[in-house]
Design goal:
Order of helices and strands: HEHEEHHEEH
Helix content: 25-40%
CATH class of one domain: Alpha Beta
Structural class: alpha+beta
CATH superfamily of one domain: Haem-degrading domain
Number of helices: 5
CATH topology of one domain: Beta-Lactamase
Shape: globular
Distance between the termini: 96 Å
Radius of gyration: 28 Å
Number of strands: 5
CATH architecture of one domain: 2-Layer Sandwich
Length: 182
């Protein structure tokens, strides 16, 4: 009987020891290498001459045409600003929600002053490291799709901001206006 008990005790000890070994924590992964620092500065676009009100009206026409393509019925507030972010032209489609007036101006201002589409800030704020965006500039940048710089001859002549539909719809309409500038 003793040899059987000894054998059982030995098996139990091996089993328990094996489980302890199997549950040992895995080695911590090596820290990620820091991201390479680019040699070129992103969004380094020179400012050009200010867009005129007449030219801004043409941009708005392209946006309205995009927003009203069948079966679309997007109701937008559309702001065109100069390179400093100051309002040059504004148009509100019938029955656009009133809150979109200020939002469209803020999107345009953000795109002009920071020389990039507002979608970039929206995307960055989705990550925990993007919280810093709310502290930039005064007023802070608008982190919602639908603000796009207007670039002519490689220089920013202003920006356009659209609000009233979903952010993605605002961006599609604004892109049509921005592409009308060459």
């Amino acid at each position: 009987m003793r040899p059987v008990l000894f054998a059982l005790a030995t098996c139990a000890a091996v089993t328990i020891g094996g489980q302890t070994y199997a549950q040992a924590p895995a080695a911590a992964p090596a820290p990620a290498a820091p991201a390479a620092v680019p040699d070129q500065m992103p969004f380094d676009i020179a400012y050009g001459n200010t867009i005129t009100a007449e030219r801004a009206a043409e941009v708005v026409k392209a946006i309205v045409a995009e927003a009203t393509k069948s079966p679309r019925n997007w109701k937008l507030a559309i702001s065109v600003v100069d390179p400093h972010g100051e309002l040059v032209y504004f148009y509100k489609m019938d029955n656009t929600q009133l809150g979109s007036i200020t939002i469209s101006q803020n999107k345009a201002r953000t795109a002009a002053r920071l020389r990039r589409p507002t979608q970039i800030f929206s995307t960055a704020m989705q990550a925990p490291t993007g919280n810093y965006i709310a502290t930039l500039d005064s007023p802070p940048p608008t982190a919602s799709p639908g603000g796009i710089p207007l670039i002519e001859g490689g220089k920013i002549i202003g920006a356009v901001g659209c609000s009233g539909a979903t952010g993605d719809q605002d961006a599609v309409a604004c892109k049509a206006g921005a592409e009308s500038v060459k």
